[in-house]
Every structure is written in structure tokens, then in C-alpha cells.
Amino acid sequence: MAGPPIVTRVPLVTLMQRFVRLATFAWVMALAGLASAAPSVVGVRMGDQGEATRLVLDLTESVRYAVSVLDGPYRVVIDLPVVEWALSPADEARKLGPIERFRYGRFDATTSRLVLDLAGPVEIARTFVLPPESGARYRLVVDLKPVGAAAFAANRAATAKPAPVPQVVARPPPPARFDKPVIVLDPGHGGVDPGTIGATGSREKDITLAMARELRQTLEATGRYRVVLTRELDVFIPLQRRVGIAREVGAALFLSLHADSVGQPSISGASIYTLSEQASDKEAELLAAKENRADLIGGLDLADQTNDVAAILISLAQRETMNLSATFASMLVPEFAKDWHLVRNTHRFAGFAVLKAPDVPSVLVELGYLSNPNDERSLRAPAGRKPVIDAVTRAVNRYFDLHPV
Ligand code: ZN
Known about the structure:
Elements: H1 15-32, E1 40-49, E2 52-59, E3 66-70, E4 75-81, E5 84-85, H2 89-92, E6 99-108, E7 111-118, E8 122-130, E9 138-146, H3 149-159, E10 182-187, H4 204-221, E11 226-229, H5 239-248, E12 253-260, E13 270-275, H6 282-292, H7 294-297, H8 303-313, H9 316-339, E14 342-350, E15 362-369, H10 373-380, H11 382-402
Parallel strand pairs: 1-5, 10-11, 10-12, 12-15, 13-14
Antiparallel strand pairs: 1-2, 2-9, 3-4, 4-7, 6-7, 8-9, 13-15
Helix pairs in contact: 4-11, 9-11, 10-11
This protein binds zinc ion.
Residues 188-189, 195, 204, 258, 291 line the site of zinc ion.
């Protein structure tokens, strides 16, 4: 079993791909300055080792790492210190054996994370770091072997450490005074979880963050509100934590921003969701399941907390909050109809995890479809986002005119 290092036998990328990767690497190093550069991941490779599937990360430095497995769905999580990611599209398209795809990004203040989505249960047969040989790269090697579900469960119970509790770097300080209503804007997804990817490659997590920043500026310019963002950076924040931020700052309104995509490029327009224990239709339910998957993608298991939240849901306070949420949604619909466009039956009800603060009126907006070329073009540019921002601002003003805090 203890064969010689087999990395060189991993089926090699073509010379062209190697050149692109090397060029990217050189560019990153030049940009960052050699002295101050963070370690970079400059390649991801996979190889068939007979019984095992080998994953190799090419790194500019030797780094500490932790590898663990999760189920429901089956995943392998590799935690690294904060690194730069300099991967080519060819790297990102790789899949082999049980590895169906992988995601990567910043996880919290001190951790970058790579998550492998698996076709079935595996065990981590070996992990080690190889020093550079001819090139300038260290290689982190992880060997995965398929195992049965029972062996996986026993393995996990015996060896797995609990997933690290994410530290929130993007958490803003609470406002100094509460002389104005606080609005919390929640840019959907981030870090290891890009959200949906548009027809021309734009990422939901970037669009929602840009939108939230611009919306904050417009709302604060009215002089009527304080605005807090759940994340200021491209970082992963668990859904539960986003709700926590809204409660800690005493938010009077919580607005979660997302963008969707579907197989049919002709479908376009915004949809607006408020919480219900029962989804208003199958489509809304599927979307909620998709958005709620964010925590699974980030490698967290939140089953317990979700039960707590479900219990709170049935309280009367929750019902009052749900009514206020629906009121705000009903004010947003006509404003979007004026300046933007909506899908049919735009106000829907579904069990989004992020809408479950029992005492904060909360609305989730799918701003449009990144699978639709017009929606994508509008949402990726500040000029295209402007009418959407103005529409939300008018609805917010109207809501607080009628429901002063
Ligand atoms: Zn989303």
C-alpha cells in the first residue's frame, strides 16, 4: 500500500492548461508582491490510483490543513489557512470517481475551505504534503477510498471532529444609537458558496453584495434609517448567523437579497418571498430548499438549531411578524412593477431558513434570473441596478410611514 509518491502518475493536464496555470500563478505573485503574498492554491488535480481516488492541491507554500468528512449529502471538507485561489476553468471542471464537483472560498476570518461534493461515502485513506521537486510547488495529497454507508458512519463517529464554528468577520458593530429604525440587508451567499452562476459567468454572491452596498447608500441618504449588512466581504456566513445579526441589532426590517436561475432562459423578473410553514406552491418550496442548502455547501450541520427555530415559529409573535413581512412584500410588488419587472404570482410563501427571526419582519427577494440575458445584464451593472434600488427604497419609505418604529 505504501507505494512511492504517485503524484507524477496523476493523468497530467495538457501543456496549454499548465501554461495558463503557470501564467496565472506568475501574475498573482507579481500582483501580491513576493514578500507579502498569502499562500496560493494554484492547481487542483485528480487521479485514479486503482482503489483510491487522489486529490492533489498545488500550493505555493506548505500549509497546515484539516480534512474531515460529512454526510447528508456526503462531502469531504479541507480547511486551510487563508489562501489565494488561482485556479483555471480547467481546474474547476475536474471530477473523478466519487468526486462530483468541488467548491472553494473564504470560510471565516482565519480559514479558507475546499468542499468536495461526493457521489457516495468515502474514507480518507491518506493525507500528506509533498515538498517541491522540480517546480516551485508544494502538493497537498488526499486519497479517498469508497466505503459502505455503515463503515462511513462508524469512521465519522470515531474520527471526525465537529465542524469548526465559523467566526464572523463581516459582522458590523451595533449602531451607536437607536434613534432610527435599523434595516438589515442580507447579501445572499458568499465565500465558499457562490450561489447561482449566470449565463455569462456572473456570480449571485457578487451581484447581491454590490446591490446591498448601493441600497445601503440610498437608504441612508434619506436620513431616516440606519443600515447594517450581514456581510461586507466575500465570506461565507451561515444562514442562522444572518438571522442572529438582525436580532442583535434590533432590526425593524430584514431584507435578504438573492438572484435565481432556471433552465429556461426566457424566464425573467423578480419574485418576493415571505415565511410560511407551508409553501404556496411546489416551485417556491424547491427554491427554499435550494437556498437553504447554503449551509450544507459551507460544510455546516444545523439540524439541531433548525428544530429550535421551528419551535419558535409557532409562537404568536411569529404570526404578527409574518403579517408585517407580508405587508412590506405587498408594498414592494407595485414598486417593482413600476420600475423593474416581476414573475407572475410574485409574492410567494415558503420556508426559507433566513426568514425565521421570530421578531423581525423579513422578506427575501429573488431580484431576477441570472439565466436570463437581460436580467443578468441589468443586475451586473450599477446603472441597471439603480431602478431596482429606487423601487425598494420607495417601498421601505412607505412601510415606515405606516409602521413607524
Ligand atoms: Zn440565493
